[in-house]
Amino acid sequence: MHDYLHVEPRPRVGRPVQHDPREWRVTDNLPTPVPVTSPEIDAFEAWFGDIFDQLFGDRP
To answer: What is the C-alpha to C-alpha distance for residues 48 and 30, in angstroms, rounded to an integer?
Structure first.
């Protein structure tokens, strides 16, 4: 029986993946401190509010 459903994977586009984390280099060009908007804070509080309360306690 032939394998008609076997699909070859698409070739990767871009640089090859480096699998050794010791060779990874992380850089950024973000300002210090990183600006955060009120809607971003609201989103974090909506999703992680319970965890923040456990970590930091209830704050007014």
So the answer is: 24
Question: What is the CA 29 to chain-centroid distance, rounded?
Answer: 17
CA–CA dist 47, 40 (Å, integer)? 11
Q: Model's pTM, two decimal places? A: 0.42
Chain segment 2-37, per-residue pLDDT in tens: 667 777 888 878 877 767 778 778 888 888 898 999
Cβ 56 vs Cβ 50: under 8 Å: no
Cβ within 8 Å of residue 44, ≥6 positions away: 52
Q: In the 8-state DSSP scheme, what is residue 33?
A: S
Scanning the structure block, which residue is given the tokens 């974090």? 44
